[in-house]
Amino acid sequence: LWQVMEVLATMTWTVDLLLSFFKGYEVCGDVEMNPSAIMRHYVRTWFCFDFSIVSMDWFLFVVQSGDMVDWLRFTRFRRAVRLLRLARLFKHGGRILQL
Q1: For residues 7 and 72, what is the distance between their CA atoms, to the nearest angstrom?
Q2: Average pLDDT for consecutive 10-residue bins of the chain (99 residues)?
Q3: Closest CA to 76 of 54, 43, 46, 92
Q4: Sequence-ordered list of residues with C-beta below 8 angstroms from that of 41, at least 6 positions apart, any chain
């Protein structure tokens, strides 16, 4: 059951990574929907963060077992929690400061 949940979560984040190339973003109160501008913006902002997490998930799924994998899973969880908190601050920090 745990492995199925891991695969589903990894697939969900992989699809989200791909869909992020097509999601508009806000510029001066307007939503930018130009595909090439969206792709450039995503690659310059969140792509490296998203790709690093998803690629680590797929790597750990392929390797499956061993002491090193167990260690990576544990440290990955701790690191992911910290990075998500930091990412949330960066993503929403500008909006909070505007209030």
Answers
A1: 17
A2: 79 88 90 95 89 80 67 64 64 54
A3: 54
A4: 25, 32
